[in-house]
Amino acid sequence: xxxxxxxxxxxxxxxxxxxxxxxxxxxxxxxxxxxxxxxxxxxxxxxxxxxxxxxxxxxxxxxxxxxxxxxxxxxxxxxxxxxxxxxxxxxxxxxxxxxxxxxxxxxxxxxxxxxxxxxxxxxxxxxxxxxxxxxxxxxxxxxxxxxxxxxxxxxxxxxxxxxxxxxxxxxxxxxxxxxxxxxxxxxxxxxxxxxxxxxxxxxxxxxxxxxxxxxxxxxxxxxxxxxxxxxxxxxxxxxxxxxxxxxxxx
Length: 250
Hints:
The chain is of the alpha/beta class and 250 residues long. It is 45% helix and 11% strand. The chain has ten helices and five strands, in the order αβαβααβαβαβαααα. A five-stranded parallel sheet has the order 2-3-4-1-5. Strand 3 (105-110), helix 5 (125-140) and strand 4 (144-149) form a beta-alpha-beta unit. The longest helix is centred in the last third of the chain and has 20 residues, at 228-247. It is elongated.
């Protein structure tokens, strides 16, 4: 299990496209992934908030943690729990914590921003009761709870204080872009990326491991052999699409 935290890719569980490697996590704040695992091994309980853009490795790191700690990963999304009936969402949240085994599982709640909106902005009583229910369950849960979100703004300040760790997952750093491109497009992470391609990669500041996974899946599904230049064009298109989505008006 330890090897998962020291450069060896973990076996893929989702539609990964690429093997995940903690070397391509870009966490703000200087806390190393190995330090997180050591803390969880020592205590057996903690609440963690993973936040950052899609594709930066939040869910994949939860998988790494569960495997390194030899725990079952239980993943639930907001859409699994939200109900149109009054009080049923709160019941679903309570059941989620009650039915999990805190000694042998790691609980991941994705899209947690759906439940932890700032109560000062709440217009309906159920918005406040959902926040209160989740905070109460977090407070008393004796296991490892991970909340993940792409949207950190607007989360209730009191909720943020309940998390032992708030880990900001960022887009790939320049050196990570080069290494991952070398691994996926050139076939060897130790190879040097040609200067013209490296200059282009330097401009893709929003590039994430998820973008590489998307291009790799395309390559597999289409049974293609992509030259490095073609792989880079696909990555560029993924980054451009994110910019267009951000500026589009619905």
